[in-house]
Design goal:
This protein has 417 residues and is α+β, with helices and mostly antiparallel strands. It is 63% helix and 10% strand. The chain has 16 helices and five strands. Helix 4 runs parallel beside helix 6 and helix 5 packs antiparallel against helix 6.
Length: 417
């Protein structure tokens, strides 16, 4: 049994005085067995009978009274009656020489354990009265011996009561501290459990968000996204960069490559030459990212060099990357392959050149034909019909349906009138 449970059962403040009264009841029953079996002879049966009556009253009081509804102080009536019962038993079984004198300790300890110094004093006074019972009730007692005992006993019982009371007080304080610590631990455990549940939920949300971002990141295959520190060393390499430049993320990060290594050297030289004296740094990255380092978005055409040495034209958007404090921590290069776009532009230019040449050639032929028709105005009218037929064929070949339509509307015929 722990100390907490022991003091809870022993203390009247627990509203269960019967449990604290059981030790006294058991010791009293054992003493009566010795007397009734003849193992010990009572010197005064009247006091023994009276002690039994007092113990019975204390027992009925402990059993029948609803102590939970009564102030804890009144529960001390049970050990006080037990004190009186022990005093009568001691007087009727030899007084100071009674073998049952040690039973005084049971109600004495019960009272002394109560919280407060006054209960220690009450226990000492009760023990003094019980010890003095033979002096007051038995005329045959040795008055000198009882008088010395009356002086010495209260001092010893008083000191014992104070020690018991102090020990009980400290134990109660420890129990209160332990109870409070247990309560605080349960509160903290509840908070930790709730926090753990929230953390698990938050972790699941972060995992879901991370999976989403990773899925989006892996889906960016048509644009290369390259992140670097402020010195240009690559620390971010997406699948689009792998596809465009022919190196995996593991190869790039393990090799500690610099973004400058994927730039065409002639472009770097041209950029540094354009900056002139401002490009005082030996790092060509400063020349490539001068605008982005100032916090601006830098969008321009460039040329990347693949791992196999081939070149790929790109349009690069360069921006600076900020940390949690708002300071520049790196650069981001987002590049789009412009090879297909350049091919479309080349084919468009070729087509426009071809069409322009054809239009110039046919326009010249039409102009020569019209000049010939103008000269025909001076000839005789009889030769105009075959000439007009020939002109219709020529204009249809060199100028298309527009000339034919004009001929049908007799606009050209008006030239010969």
């Amino acid at each position: 049994m722990t100390l907490d449970r022991f003091f809870a059962k022993l203390s009247p403040a627990s509203s269960r005085p019967l449990q604290a009264h059981v030790p006294t009841l058991g010791a009293f029953a054992l003493a009566l067995v010795f007397i009734w079996t003849g193992m010990y002879t009572a010197t005064n049966e009247r006091w023994v009978t009276l002690s039994i009556a007092m113990l019975g009253a204390a027992t009925l009081l402990a059993v029948l009274v609803p102590w939970r509804r009564i102030a804890p102080f009144w529960t001390l009536s049970v050990p006080i009656l037990s004190f009186v019962a022990v005093g009568f038993l001691r007087t009727g079984t030899g007084g100071a020489y009674s073998p049952f004198s040690a039973m005084i300790l049971l109600p004495f300890v019960w009272i002394a354990l109560e919280e407060g110094r006054r209960y220690a004093v009450l226990a000492a006074v009760g023990a003094f009265i019980v010890v003095m019972f033979p002096f007051f009730l038995d005329d045959d007692g040795d008055s000198s011996t009882e008088f010395i005992r009356a002086l010495f006993t209260p001092l010893m019982y008083g000191m014992t009561a104070l020690i018991i009371n102090e020990v009980a007080r400290r134990v109660r304080e420890r129990l209160r501290e332990a109870t409070e610590a247990t309560r605080q631990r349960e509160i903290l455990l509840g908070e930790v459990t709730a926090g753990s549940q929230k953390l698990a939920l938050r972790e699941q949300e972060l995992r879901t968000a991370n999976d989403l971002l990773q899925s989006i990141w892996n889906s960016i295959t048509e644009q290369s996204v390259i992140g670097t520190d402020m010195d240009g060393y690559i620390n971010v390499w997406n699948p689009g960069a792998e596809k465009m430049l022919g190196l995996t993320q593991k190869q790039v990060l393990a090799g500690k490559l610099n973004i400058v290594e994927f730039q065409q050297s002639t472009e770097i030289d041209a950029r540094m030459e354009a900056l002139g004296e401002d490009a005082i740094s030996e790092n060509p990255l400063v020349a490539l990212t001068a605008s982005a380092r100032r916090g601006n978005a830098q969008i321009e055409d460039s040329t990347y060099v693949r791992s196999d040495g081939t070149h790929v034209p790109v349009k690069v958007a360069t921006t600076s990357r900020m940390d949690a404090q708002g300071n520049q921590s790196g650069l981001i290069f987002v590049a789009t392959d412009m090879t297909a776009h350049h091919e479309i532009v080349r084919l468009k230019d070729e087509f426009i050149g071809l069409v322009s040449h054809e239009l110039r050639t046919r326009s010249a032929r039409c102009w020569d034909t019209l000049n010939f028709c103008v000269r025909m105005r001076m000839d005789s009218p009889s030769s105009r019909k075959p000439i007009l037929q020939w002109l219709s064929v020529m204009l249809s070949g060199c100028c298309g349906s527009w000339a034919t339509c004009c001929l049908r509307r007799r606009r050209i015929r008006g030239i010969f009138r």
